[in-house]
Amino acid sequence: MLAVASVVAFGLPADAQQSTADGSTPTGGTDKSSADASPDAATATGSGSQRQRATTRPKRKSSQNENQPALITADQIVHDRDLNTVTARGHVEVDQGERILLADALSYNLKQDVIIATGNVSLTETTGDVTFADYIELTGDMKTATTKGIRILMVDDSRIAANSGNRVAGDRSVFEKGVYTACKPCADNSGSPPLWQMKANRITHDEIEHLIEYNDAWLEMDGVPVAYTPYLSHADPTIKRKSGLLPPSVLNNTIVGTGIRIPYFQVIDPYQDITLTPMATVSGLSSSSSSSSSSSSSSNDGNYEQLALVHRWRNIYGGTKTTFSVTNMPESTVETKATVGWHVDAYGRFDLDDTWRAGYAVQRASDRYYLTTFGYHTPQPYLTSRPYLEGFDERSYTAFEAYSFQSLSTPTSTTPKSPVVFPMATYSYVGNPGRYGSYWNFDTHAAVITRQDGVNSRRVNTLTGWNLPYTAADGEIYKISASVRADGYNSDHVTTDDNKQYNRARSIPMASVDWRYPFTRLGEHSSQTISPIVVATASPYGGNTSKIPNEDSLDFELDDTNIFKANPGTGYDRVLTGPRVAYGGQYTIVNRGMGTADVVLGQSYQVHPEAVFPQGSGLDHHVSDIVGRAGVSPSSNFTVQYGFRMDKDSLTLRRSEINTSIGPKPLNLQTSYVFYDRLNPTSLFDAREQLTGTLSVQASHYWSTQLYTTQNLGAGAAPLQTGVRVIYEDECFQITANAGSSHTTVKTFTAGHYFTLSINFKTLAQFPVDVF
């Protein structure tokens, strides 16, 4: 079969559109009056067949794409010079810039610059959207079009369909009697409606504003109308951010009452945006819902009004995020006696160059209950503010920083006792390897710690060390270290009734030898390694005078991570001195394709124990408690990690932590058991024994369930929280239902039942609801 290629210049002068049978001009083809074809224009496509190609150039030259030639490929192209039309049939393809038009047949009127395409029409836009239609009429630059029976597959797999549509100037499309959905058609029943769709009398897609608008629209679920709106808009899939109102969220709890949040999102520039969220509630906290609330009367009948702000800025050199809220409270809080609450949570980081970076964190609240009252959760029982400047060189680290804290576990009235650390500087250096691989290290630290009411201290700490790692011929591994520590302190108000100022200095030389002797056995399918460990440390006694305030070594606990350190303590203020030896071992087995297991055990002995660390720390006797860790992971579907500390005499457990993960993702059980015996009466934490478990079940491709519980197994054993979470999620829709009971009561949370819903119409809107 013979196919003919023809060159047709869209919009070119008439003399450039003439063709001759001998192909003497750049345009040859089939002329209806002569019914001949130009052999010079024919392009071989293999196996004796030929295919027509037409190169065209549009009239408009407003963009780079429009100045590119339009290329037509078809099985047959006919140029009628009398009617000044070009007709293409069979596998028609028109390429103009990044736009591609496919059809069974095409007619182009050169004089009117109008293309009519019929039969399996598809038009791929520069955005990646693909338009399908039964009939399409468009201009030669493919920017203005009229369609019938239109369907659009957008770049994010969402879909628009309409009876008819018009496209104007290449950037605005209007669809009459249209529907929009992000759901894919059902493979087993193509005639059934999608899970959800927006059906509107008119849908407008503004590609300049990147906005899809609906007029007189219904939201349908499985073909059933469930919600009506006269107008709705959302961003199209070509952008990630768009200014406008976000879906509201409904609140309903015993503390703030029933209310609503309506967020507004504003794009400021390509690097920053802001979200403003006003909130209003009615019938909030009353004297009956919290026995610890203030006795003062409510000034606004239990209503809360809040304005929250979130500002984000980011570029290649760093970023910031600031969260702030201010709330008109119905009652004065117990601690601040104020009717206005607030909080701020801000952080930022800036890369100054390849070595230096700066940043900050600011966390503050009007009182310790504000964050939990309004759902601003923090993982720590305190808030931290910290500016910093850091430098990372090849072999050194430098930091200048400051700290300020706010406790969330003690009354706001104790704030004057909270420390402010300013300034604080740290420098660490590790030298290049020298003879036999030895190297020097140098660490220095300086800080000023002040309080409005309490201990004030100024300190400088330095440590200079020499280290020699060595591996003997028989496989023994040594690390020999020697160091000298020199510290200087200036302190006042060391005790409550002592306002004197003290100057103290100390110099502590220390030497240690770390010895390990790993024995390895290689099997056909596994390898086993057992290694005894001995660390001997020697230093003169002393240096831990009571006139040096203990700021950073208050709650030390011995475990497998510090038992083999020359100085197992944390911080700078307390140092473990005198002769000491730590001993233990490690066993590891690795099965090829069958997982791993490892065990670590350790204990230490000191000649004359000092009261450096608090009672119950595990190091307050000659022989320490036994610490260890065990882990088993025969496969990725089964993992157990166990850490413990046992009494040296009775072998009674003082601390026990077990974390497990059993089963693959479709059926997985995760548990966490914690036991902590409060041996130190000054510890910040009470004794506790607690079990947490989560069972996750992927019931089907779309449905999943989580059952979760937290149980108190210690004194007054009782469940703390139990609940169930059910999730349905497919490519276009997600709904999460969370229901349960909480059995913990604090000032800002009353024990009882709860039920929340989160409904997400993907690409359209998300609706979180606190039912109760």
TrEMBL record:
It comes from the Bacteria. One of its GO terms (biological process) is Gram-negative-bacterium-type cell outer membrane assembly. Pfam families: LptD, LptD_N. Signal peptide: none annotated. Residues 16-32 have a biased composition (Polar residues). InterPro entries: LipoPS_assembly_LptD (IPR020889), LptD (IPR050218), LptD_C (IPR007543), OstA-like_N (IPR005653). Residues 72-148 form the Organic solvent tolerance-like N-terminal domain. It is found in: Cell outer membrane. Residues 342-703 form the LptD C-terminal domain. Involved in the assembly of lipopolysaccharide (LPS) at the surface of the outer membrane. Belongs to the LptD family. Component of the lipopolysaccharide transport and assembly complex. This is LPS-assembly protein LptD.
